[in-house]
Write a structure and sequence with these properties.
Jelly Rolls; 469 residues; mainly beta; 5-stranded mixed beta sheet; rod-shaped; 2 domains
Amino acid sequence: MSKIEVNAVEPQCGTTLTLGASGDTVTLGSGASQSGFGRTGTVDWDTTAKTASFTAVSGNGYFVNTTSGAITVTLPATPSAGDIVSIADYTNTFQTNVVTVARNGSPIGGIASDAVLSTEGQSVTFIYVDGTEGWKNVQDSTSNVTGNPYLAATGGTITTCGNYKIHTFTGPGTFTVTTAAVSAPNNVVDYLVVAGGGGGGAGHPSSGAAGSGAGAGGYRESSGTSTGSYTVSPLGACVSALPVSVTGYPIVVGGGGAAATSAAPAPGPTKASSGSNSSFSTIISTAGGYGGSRSWGSPPTGGSGTNTDCRSDGGPGGSGGGGNIFCAPTPATPGSAGTGNTPPVSPPQGQNGGIYTPGGNGGVSGGGATGAGATNNPTSSSGAGGAGATSSINGTPTARAGGGGGGQSCGGPGPGSASAGGGAGGTSPGGTGSNGTANTGGGAGGAAAPGGDGGTGGSGVVIIRYRYQ
């Protein structure tokens, strides 16, 4: 390596002197210092955090860790114009344990008093100006930019409500947690899982008997206290949020059940079908039960035989479908009401369907999330759908999982009404039962007599909510 010893280097011509070529690094020897280059107003940061009081050196920036207690940073003595010192909150604890900036004989901002840094995440830069103003603060940041300490996830339709994200699934998908929260208590999500509602019962093709309403899809939700304390239905009381980790969670959204039709011959109308289950993680909501249709045994003239196909029974499920009536054996005997909360969970995911009353007008209704299906009687309209449930998990109070209403009989007072996404009963003569509303899990309405078809159950929904900032 060649060595050149000179006292001065000057350009041969002009006023520009270049040291090194493009891409080269010019390095001062160990212990050597520079002068005459001036400063650019920046500092060289000492990346070893300070955990005890110290005296700052001009040209340096310091990360100060006050986790264990307050710290004093003393500014340089006998400073020169252009001296510069920066201080930054290392662990975002200045609001708990302050930093005192000791002036060391010089004013700070023209005042002969020490300064105090007491804001979380604060960073400041001081430049010495002159003997009058002393150290002037040219930068004071109270922002605290950090990596996201909360959950991050993908999947479904994403909306926000304050500090919370809401993922809504109206069909199958995957809720994927891509980043876990730093704090374990934030690695939880609130949820609403509603299954598909059942299909409605059909009217008898040649008599005044109407079809019965179907049960709503099972309704399960958490209490909401982990993600903003929004309003939930009674079914969410004291139900813990679900813990999650960095993985994908398959989402199943159940479809609504198919309707019964009034096709003949014996044994009468076709059988409606229940909806389909919805699920997220360990939470499974059961499909709503189908509504019953009046049927008869063999032979179709009635008076003898048995109802072997159970078309008159309401289906079991999250909420049960309404039962109906058949003609054999004599006298006419009601089919059974569908049982809700099947299989059982706590709190219950739904209620029973209505029970048919012989001699009553119209069909009976299916159960809803919070109310059982209503029966029929000789003087009033067909049974009204069982009450659903209301939650504000998506930021808006929304009623879901209502039971379907019973259909109107020939000459009866009127069809059964619906609630919370359930379908109303059909209007005589022969009116079709209304469908359950999509993505509410509403049970379908029963058909009017004679000869009407039932409605189709409403599909379910899965909604997930968590803190994201």
